[in-house]
Design brief:
Layout lengths: L1 H11 L11 H21 L3 E2 L1 H4 L1 E7 L5 H10 L6 E5 L2 E6 L4 H14 L8 E5 L1 H29 L2 H25 L2 E2 L1 H29 L10 H37 L3 H23 L1 H9 L3 H27 L14 E2 L2 E2 L12 H20 L10 H6 L1
Parallel strand pairs: 1-6
Antiparallel strand pairs: 2-4, 2-5, 3-4, 7-8
Helix pairs in contact: 2-7, 4-5, 6-7, 6-8, 7-8, 7-10, 7-11, 8-9, 8-10, 9-10, 9-11
Amino acid sequence: MLGLRAVLSRVYRGEISADIVGRPRLWYSISGLLLVFSIAGLVVQGLNMGVEFKGGSVFTFSAPSASIEQVRGAVTGGGAHQAIVQQAGDGWRVTTESLSSAKVTEVKDNVAEELNVPAQKVSTQVVGASWGGEVSAKAWQALIVFMILIIAYLSVAFEWRMALAAVVALVHDLVITAGIYAWSGFEVTPATLLGFLTILGYSLYDAVVVFDMIKEVTKPLGPTSKITYSQAANQALSSTLVRSLNTSLVAILPVAAILFIGTTLFGAGTLKDLSLALFVGMIVGTYSSICVATPLLVQLKEREPKYRELRANIERRRNSAKRQAKAAKAMVPAGEGDPAPGDGPFDGGVAKGGDPDDSPEGSAEDAADDVRATVTVRKVVQTGPRQQPKRGTRQQRRGR
């Protein structure tokens, strides 16, 4: 446990790099499970559409001493059949099916009589089904326009692959948020749609930050680079990971306060629809921008000829270096010193028995070392070993 905490702490401080891009199957499996769970909620439970979308009658009044059962009984006793009761502080909001004017008056009088509320304090609102359908149509239009603008912006600012990855992540966030909304049974209101649009913008912001860093890091990559596009993208993602987590945490905390504290302690029923969409969407949006959009972008980019060639070059240099290291080890007998000049695995920078094209592309310092070693060997061969002066006998030295 302590080891895991230490690793997470080092990742959070940016001391080590987390291999996120290199594990696409793990992230796709998690997303697949979440999508299946969400789609099942949409199919089994369905969205609890509010009166603004399906039409109906709304009764609003204040009865501090009443309970939910008493309020529901008062409304159904007046002739309503489908009563959805919501409490906001001391006030009550009851939504029913569409009622005629006579039925609305009957329900209003029964509520005033059963709950001891003045009839003029019971406000009513009737929403037609046609108006709700118009609101739904406009919501879909707003979503489609939003997606088109996002694709156009990302295609111009970055490229179409980044636009595609971002849109996939946005759809991923929408489906999961809607599924959790369906399982929770919360009522879908216009505030819910505002929350959905907000989380789309938040998720897009996080993805743009990551994509911009990836664009800067991968820009200098060429055929002679020593890292692949995947490795460069993972480095860029690791450098922005802490920033994304901090931004998400700061944004989620006040939303969580509204959702869990405001709705339970203060009865902020009108805000729970918005806060649930924001809470779920921010968490899923942060996850998708890091673990869905970025791996998908890397997979699309790795299919380009430029980056396929880069990966092939890196593999070729790595394999060639391994072969030469193995050859050098085989030609040096155990217990002996360095091999004689000309007998090593390299001859002028080319592996013996190999093709010059198969030699590793070393750095400038490696090439300079090879040249200096070759010049030294040639001087020794041309001049021969250094001769020591001959010393005469003792008699000859005395005669001098």
